[in-house]
């Protein structure tokens, strides 16, 4: 088919289809890619560095380095089929418009992303493609059950985790396992192109010294007993890999179902928050329970700075924040302690903490971050009750009895450590009073 180029010039181009990588950075068990490769036309794999996202990030953002490295890996795998990935940078709509000029595109395949920003973006791109008579196909890949697949009997979304999990498990066991998608038989359908792979500096970034750790499932043998103890380092480190799709959730869930039900429950928490965000997109910047809108937060900026820098004088809080600042990761138990401390002890709006985590976490995922922050603040769908105020010292005694975790991140701990910035009993009473006064009856 001949298509217009530069408005006037006509030339014959090969008919192709596109697979658009986003948060699914792998060739293995990739639902959208599996379907794309079975389509009639050669598949050009594409990734767009989206300026709407990138423009807000520091030049050495560790997530961008991880994405870049993952794309490089995909590219070298594609080279084995004389293919390569096309990397673009720009505003997605503009990039697609230029691709329409450059190629004779027959159809576009991608996996669904359930975040509000992504839904809006994908609707806009699909509309542009449809205007050009290009078929668009989207697939479920990021979760086992999406959108309205798990609902209450009345069709409404679950807002409490345990019944959601029970229904999720019932549905999963009915299926037997999650179907995995093996693209290998179809890999000859990758378009034979050698696109240049740009240097990271061309994208406007530099390599970060902070690295995503490889995930490690061998650590979770005694997950139920060990997962809450940060010094044991016995969790999987899967979170950034799930965030960017360098592992398949289907393979993981099938594995977890055979090996470890407690671990499976954590993967279901992830899906619970994804379906909450999908059903209640407003929760990104509003309390899930509007009854909590009346809380008078102190929002003291100096207190916030001490929390961010890990200098509150509460070792468990400070160790966690320093781990986050230095590595882009924090153990889950410690995340709960630091989040509770910010909202309750310092009476700072959970949105400040959520934004700081979003900036720093390698595994930042909107659904899990907002869901867990609202859980800690007591404003969320299935949240900790407002009068439950973690005592950071007791948490430390319980989960880091020998102080191994805190000494790792606070080298000066044994040499005269800071006094707590606020007394626990005072802060607890102040928080409970502020919540009580603020709750709209
Ligand atoms: P593992 O214990 O090995 O768990 C395996 C996987 O289960 C995780 O990778 C994750 O996908 C899922 N999971 C475990 N716990 C939770 C949970 N509470 N909620 C949702 N999914 C869970 N997780 C993120 O992926 N992104 C975030 O932005 C994020 N923000 C958080 C903010 C706060 C305040 C809190 C308390 C928790 C947050 N979590 C977030 C959840 C959890 O802390 C991390 O998923 C976990 O620490 C990642 O380490 P891991 O992969 O070794 O966990």
Outline the structure in words.
The chain has a five-stranded parallel β-sheet with strand order 5-4-3-6-7, sandwiched between helices. A two-stranded antiparallel ribbon has the order 1-2. The protein has helices spanning about 30-35, 50-55, 60-80, 90-100, 115-130, 160-175, 225, 240-245, 250-260, 260-280, 300-310, 315-325, 330-345, 350-360, 365-375, 390-400, 405-410, 425-440, and strands at about 1-5, 10, 15-20, 45-50, 85-90, 105-110, 135-140. It has about 450 residues and is of the alpha/beta class. The chain has 18 helices and seven strands. The radius of gyration is 24 Å and the shape is globular. It binds flavin-adenine dinucleotide. Flavin-adenine dinucleotide binds next to α8, α10, α13 and α15.
Keywords:
441 residues; alpha/beta; five-stranded parallel beta sheet; two-stranded antiparallel ribbon; 18 helices; 7 strands; binds flavin-adenine dinucleotide
Summarize the structure.
This protein is of the alpha/beta class. It is 45% helix and 9% strand. Helix 6 crosses helix 10 and helix 14 packs antiparallel against helix 15.
List the helices and strands and how they pair.
Layout: E1 2-5, E2 9-12, E3 15-21, H1 31-37, E4 43-50, H2 51-54, H3 62-79, E5 86-90, H4 92-102, E6 104-111, H5 116-131, E7 135-139, H6 161-175, H7 223-226, H8 239-244, H9 249-259, H10 261-279, H11 301-309, H12 315-327, H13 332-345, H14 350-360, H15 366-377, H16 392-399, H17 404-409, H18 424-438
Parallel strand pairs: 3-4, 3-6, 4-5, 6-7
Antiparallel strand pairs: 1-2
Helix pairs in contact: 4-5, 6-10, 9-10, 10-15, 12-13, 13-15, 14-15
């Amino acid at each position: 088919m001949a298509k217009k180029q530069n408005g006037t010039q006509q030339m014959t181009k090969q008919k192709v289809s596109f697979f658009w990588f986003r948060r699914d950075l792998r060739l293995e068990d990739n639902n959208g890619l599996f379907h794309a490769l079975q389509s009639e036309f050669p598949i050009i794999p594409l990734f767009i560095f989206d300026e709407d996202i990138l423009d807000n990030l520091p030049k050495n953002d560790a997530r961008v380095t991880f994405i870049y490295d993952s794309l490089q890996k995909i590219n070298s795998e594609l080279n084995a089929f004389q293919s390569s990935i096309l990397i673009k940078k720009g505003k997605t709509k503009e990039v697609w418009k230029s691709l329409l000029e450059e190629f004779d595109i027959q159809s576009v395949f991608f996996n669904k992303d359930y975040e509000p920003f992504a839904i809006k973006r994908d609707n806009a791109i699909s509309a542009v493609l449809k205007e050009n008579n290009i078929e668009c196909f989207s697939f479920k890949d990021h979760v086992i059950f999406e959108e309205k697949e798990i609902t209450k009997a009345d069709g409404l979304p679950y807002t409490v985790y345990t019944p959601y999990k029970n229904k999720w498990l019932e549905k999963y066991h009915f299926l037997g396992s999650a179907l995995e998608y093996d693209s290998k038989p179809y890999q000859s359908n990758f378009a034979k192109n050698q696109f240049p792979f740009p240097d990271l500096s061309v994208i406007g970034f530099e390599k970060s010294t902070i690295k995503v750790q490889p995930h490690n499932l061998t650590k979770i043998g005694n997950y139920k007993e060990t997962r809450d103890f940060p010094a044991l380092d016995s969790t999987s480190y899967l979170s950034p890999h799930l965030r960017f799709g360098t592992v398949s959730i289907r393979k993981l869930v099938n594995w977890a179902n055979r090996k470890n039900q407690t671990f499976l429950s954590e993967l279901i928490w992830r899906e619970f928050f994804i379906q909450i965000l999908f059903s209640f997109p407003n929760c990104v910047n509003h309390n899930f329970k509007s009854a909590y809108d009346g809380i008078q937060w102190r929002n003291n900026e100096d207190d916030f700075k001490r929390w961010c820098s890990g200098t509150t004088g509460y070792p468990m809080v400070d160790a966690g924040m320093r781990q986050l600042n230095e590595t882009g990761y924090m153990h889950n138990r410690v995340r709960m302690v630091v989040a509770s401390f910010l909202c309750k002890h310092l009476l700072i709006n959970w949105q400040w903490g959520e934004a700081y985590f979003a900036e720093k976490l390698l595994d930042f995922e909107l659904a899990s971050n907002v869901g867990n922050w609202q859980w800690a603040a007591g404003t969320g769908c299935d949240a900790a009750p407002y009068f439950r105020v973690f005592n950071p010292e007791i948490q430390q005694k319980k989960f880091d009895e020998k102080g191994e975790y805190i000494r790792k991140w606070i080298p000066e701990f044994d040499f005269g450590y800071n006094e707590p910035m606020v007394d626990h009993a005072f802060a607890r009473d102040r928080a409970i009073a502020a919540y009580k006064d603020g709750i709209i009856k």
